[in-house]
Amino acid sequence: MTTQPSTQLETFDNPRPGRDFTIRIDIPEFTCLCPKTGQPDFATLTIEYVPSQLCVELKSLKLYMWSFRDRGAFHEAVTNEILDHIAAAIHPNFMRIRANFNVRGGIYTNVIAEHKNPDWQAPEPVHLP
Fold first, then answer.
1. What is the count of structural domains for the chain?
2. Which residue among 27, 42, 84, 129 is least crowded, i.e. fewest CB within 10 A of its CB?
3. Which residues make Cβ contacts (< 8 Å) with residue 80, sequence separation at least 6?
């Protein structure tokens, strides 16, 4: 196998740094291991961010997500770790990660974590009729 998991996130320049826009990435096949049982945990991750100067490159993001497959991690910890790593790589104006974990023992876990650049002001929302 030539492709391997990686913890290195690659970036590229934001093509429109003067405009606030949202990038949404859905990752329906995230897996990690339960740190108590060693059994796999499955989740759908949704990453939404308003880039500043950089965007995350998708192939490197895929390989980064793959790096969690054989690691034990609590849902809350892994969601925040992913947020911290991506935010450190691209310094977005705003980022939100939603981790919707599949049922385990009759319980669904959803974790939402956010990062905001304190110097960034979100634009006023536009409400269309």
1. 1
2. 129
3. 111, 113
Q: Looking at residue 81, which CATH number applies to its domain?
A: 3.30.1130.10
d(CA 112, CA 96): 7
3 located within any domain: no
Average pLDDT, stretch 13-37? Answer: 96
41 is catalytic: yes
Q: Which residues contact 17 (CB under 8 A, 6 or more apart)?
A: 51, 52, 53
Asked about 34 being catalytic, the answer comes back as yes
Token pair belonging to 75: 């849902």
Provide φ and ψ at 2, rounded to 5°. Answer: -90, -30
Catalytic position from the list 26, 32, 34, 84 = 34
Average pLDDT along the chain = 96
